Amino acid sequence: MKTLALILSLLFVTSAPSTVYQFKLKTIDGKPFSLAKYKGKKLLIVNTASKCGFTPQYAELQKLADEYKDKVVVIGFPANNFGSQEPGANTEIKTFCEKNYGVTFPLSSKVSVKGDDIDPLFKYLTEASNPDFTGEIKWNFEKFLIDENGNLIHRYRSQVTPLDPRITSAL
């Protein structure tokens, strides 16, 4: 009986994610999607906000998505964690991004990127080892570059723009 209990407990233990491909999310339209659909491509994951001094980076994110579409998929994750700079609902965020910056790259539904309610993906990203740094996100528009195997390979603070050579050369 003890053996059966041990086997059952092992079956139901969930292991910590080892790549971003294990995360299931929702699009800005509320539809489920998995990052696994991007296996074999690099990803640039960015926490975004519509009312931030870095908001004009949406234009460069779109340009990066267009110019490097064979090498990387840009995914924006709207978050209201810093100065209440993303107060709107998903429909408002989507409309703002499309109207003001022509955004066509994928956007997730609004998430939390720090604190007690941190989205599991961002908990993973802020703790995953990489050659740059780990720890809490400091502000909007931090960027996480993921390799073709789903591993975090670089992390950039907000001041590093999407078309900065530190990013483009890593693609």
Automatic annotation (TrEMBL):
Annotated active site: C52
Signal peptide bounds: 1-20
Domain of life of the source: Bacteria
GO molecular function: peroxidase activity
Positions of the Thioredoxin domain: 14-171
InterPro entries, alphabetized: Glutathione_peroxidase (IPR000889), GPX_AS (IPR029759), Thioredoxin-like_sf (IPR036249), Thioredoxin_domain (IPR013766)
Keywords: Oxidoreductase, Peroxidase, Signal
GO biological process, one term: response to oxidative stress
Family according to the record: Belongs to the glutathione peroxidase family.
PANTHER family: GLUTATHIONE PEROXIDASE (PTHR11592:SF78)
Name of protein: Glutathione peroxidase
Organism (species): Mucilaginibacter segetis
Phylogenetic classification of the source organism: Bacteria, Pseudomonadati, Bacteroidota, Sphingobacteriia, Sphingobacteriales
